[in-house]
């Protein structure tokens, strides 16, 4: 037996009726039943006006954020520290890890002309990182910070100590150290009468290079010690080298920030670098303590993965 054929429709269209008792008529003009509706919506003046209002709101919000953010950090100055290239990043990583024979350490400057055609005024500005290896950047510190968090979580999983709270504890632990160091740098610049915002940003950028040595210490120690962490003679040997390399790198690089030399200033630049003898002695002491004592404490804490995992495991239990 077969099902009876569908009843013939009186209309010339499709023979299938609507389940609600009517017929679904195909719209004239093709393109599917929703094409005219969407086409009409896109061509509607009200919709176009809504798009313009939304665009204006987004632009106003962006301007508001930039205006409020510029109160604390200069956006154009911050972009300078992310102007990097791949060759620069590779060479900078080698410089941070092997700074012993690098020369010179002074930053390169370029003159810029301002003023009228008859009377020009020359001012000098530092080249961006992509054009000067000695220029500090924030790309490597930010990427190293993120890599440190992911690597710490991975190592905890390889030791069988992973739990969801590890990444959160590691992030909070690392960011607290960074904030404490930035606060100390801010206090140091206030005590040493360093009021230039660019010098403060330079110090913040240099403070993040220690994560490169910390990452190398964690990876190599984990390989040599067969998953037993950074303890033992191998871990301490690698940590000692990366710490001394980072301290030497900071000592040489920060010299122009804290102890500027007038002999390195181009003639006619109009830049003054006069530092009193008493202030120079205080800055020398600050440079030594920051490069060796402070960095040793922070790098040692960051390489103690067992303590971080233990805190997370205690909180979980």
Write the layout of secondary structure elements.
Layout (H helix, E strand, L loop, with lengths): L34 H9 L1 H25 L5 H6 L5 H12 L11 E7 L4 E7 L12 H20 L6 H27 L5 H11 L2 H15 L7 H22 L1 H4 L18 H26 L2 H12 L1
Report on this model:
There is one protein chain. This protein is mainly α. The protein has twelve helices and two strands. The chain has helices spanning 35-43, 45-69, 75-80, 86-97, 139-158, 165-191, 197-207, 210-224, 232-253, 255-258, 277-302, 305-316; strands spanning 109-115, 120-126. Strands 1-2 form a two-stranded antiparallel ribbon. Helix 5 (139-158) packs antiparallel against helix 6, helix 5 (139-158) runs parallel beside helix 8 and helix 8 packs parallel to helix 11. The longest helix is centred in the middle third of the chain and has 27 residues, at 165-191. The N and C termini lie far apart (70 Å). 21% of the residues are buried.
């Amino acid at each position: 037996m077969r099902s009876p054929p569908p009843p013939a429709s009186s209309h010339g269209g499709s023979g299938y009726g609507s389940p609600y008792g009517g017929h679904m008529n195909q719209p004239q003009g093709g393109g599917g039943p929703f094409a005219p509706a969407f086409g009409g919506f896109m061509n509607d003046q009200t919709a176009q006006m809504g798009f313009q209002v939304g665009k204006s709101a987004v632009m106003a919000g962006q301007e508001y954020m930039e205006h409020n953010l510029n109160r604390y950090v200069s956006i154009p100055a911050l972009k300078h520290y992310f102007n990097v290239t791949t060759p620069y990043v590779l060479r900078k990583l080698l410089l941070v890890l092997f700074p012993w024979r690098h020369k010179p350490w002074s930053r390169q400057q370029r003159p810029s002309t301002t003023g009228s055609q008859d009377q020009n005024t020359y001012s000098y500005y530092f080249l961006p990182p992509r054009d000067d290896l000695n220029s500090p950047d924030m790309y490597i510190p930010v990427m190293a910070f993120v890599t440190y968090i992911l690597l710490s979580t991975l190592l905890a999983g390889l030791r069988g100590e992973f739990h969801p709270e590890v990444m959160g504890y590691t992030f909070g632990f690392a960011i607290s150290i960074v904030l404490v160091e930035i606060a100390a740098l801010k206090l140091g610049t206030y005590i040493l009468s360093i009021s230039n915002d660019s010098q403060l940003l330079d110090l913040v950028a240099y403070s993040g290079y220690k994560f490169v040595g910390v990452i190398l210490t964690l990876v190599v120690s984990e390989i040599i010690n067969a998953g037993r962490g950074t303890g033992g003679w191998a871990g301490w040997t690698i940590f000692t080298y990366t710490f001394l390399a980072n301290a030497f790198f900071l000592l040489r690089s920060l010299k122009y920030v804290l102890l500027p030399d007038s002999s390195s200033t181009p003639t006619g630049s109009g830049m003054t670098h006069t530092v009193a003898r008493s202030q120079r002695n205080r800055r020398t002491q600050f440079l030594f303590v920051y490069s060796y004592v402070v960095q040793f404490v922070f790098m040692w804490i960051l390489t103690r993965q067992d303590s971080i995992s233990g805190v997370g495991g205690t909180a979980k239990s």
